[in-house]
Amino acid sequence: MSQQVRGVVAPGKNEAVRVETIVIPDPGAGEAVVKIQACGVCHTDLHYKQGGISDDYPFLLGHEASGVVESVGAGVTDVAPGDFVILNWRAVCGNCRACLRGRPWYCFNTHNATQKMTLTDGTELSPALGIGAFAEKTLVAAGQCTKVDPSVAPAVAGLLGCGVMAGIGAAINTGNVGRGDTVAVIGCGGVGDAAIVGSRLAGAAKIIAVDIDDRKLTTAKTMGATHTVNSRTTDVIEAVRELTGGFGADVVIEAVGRPETYNQAFYARDLAGTVVLVGVPTPEMKIELPLLDVFGRGGSLKSSWYGDCLPSRDFPMLIDLHQQGRIDLAAFVTETIGLGDVEQAFARMHEGDVLRSVVML
Ligand code: APR
Ligand code: ZN
Ligand code: ZN
């Protein structure tokens, strides 16, 4: 028996989002219906609305979510009704070359629920990142659900489903930041701030926050940055070198996704240092680097895909650290809002006023 709930739908390119009644089928084999408790508003939701990702309208937005499993379909053994879970973008297969080599974030056979959620007139919805969680309930593949400690605040848990995991993972998984390292983070929005939290957790000795907005640098300090550089007024490469004894940082994390900031990252790192690109560029962006500098500077140039995370390993671990007070994920929640407030939250995000607005259900 299908059921009807409220959800936030992007009807067409650049059209305002609206709350609609959506129809959710019973979970099929390998699927789960999750009662959503919280879902953060992420840039990617705005990109879906603006047509930057796909033209497969209408979209059911929202993908940074936590909730309680309501029902599961045939063959589901990893989660059961009543489990508190964080949703991830794609269930991995466990059998492909990437999975077998321990890099499931590059799985070739990821999947979402195969049944479709619809509007009441039968129009099929495309769930954002295969989730669609600005809704009272949603349908996902059971492998998209990761069980975590239910005593954590849902708004905090949901954040690990996307931006905060991407940032922390960029530092601890991709960048392998270690005790005593110097780190520079370029771009201190939600992702960059999470990279700062991850670097601090990993024991970095210096964490240099770089942004063009002083408000962001102030917040970055509260997240654990030891030094700040405003790159509108200061030469980033020189400033980072000066703060690191003339060398450059061991790890530089680029959390903007632009050629000029990537260039800064490349030269702000120490010889044999690591650059991690976690900011997402657009298709037309290109970088030009002297090949001799790539050769002569050594080290590694990496990108971080979803924080190179293993949800089953990383989500519960980060929740534990938060519950113990060793990281403060609540600091990322600027405001909590209702389903009807997503359009305004997009505007505030665009102005740079919030780290995260979180829809509570
Ligand atoms: N130099 C330094 N900082 C910059 C620059 C620049 N040239 N341009 C923008 N910034 C800063 C902004 O001031 C802001 O603080 O980068 C930050 C970007 O933060 P958000 O817009 O909040 O984005 P966020 O959610 O953190 O995501 C950052 O990672 O996941 C990707 O798609 C996402 O590419 C985006 C990036
Ligand atoms: Zn996201
Ligand atoms: Zn796989």
UniProtKB/TrEMBL annotation:
One Pfam family named in its UniProt record: ADH_N
Keyword Membrane: no
Record key words, sorted: Metal-binding, Oxidoreductase, Zinc
Domain of life: Bacteria
Transport recorded as keyword: no
Cofactor needs: Zn(2+)
CDD domains from the UniProt entry: Zn_ADH_class_III (cd08279)
Molecular functions (GO terms): mycothiol-dependent formaldehyde dehydrogenase activity
Enoyl reductase (ER) domain residues: 12-359
E.C. no: 1.1.1.306
Signal peptide: none
Top enzyme class: oxidoreductase
Family label: Belongs to the zinc-containing alcohol dehydrogenase family.
PANTHER family recorded: NAD-DEPENDENT ALCOHOL DEHYDROGENASE, S-NITROSOMYCOTHIOL REDUCTASE MSCR
Protein name: S-(Hydroxymethyl)mycothiol dehydrogenase
UniProt organism field: Streptomyces niveus (Streptomyces spheroides)
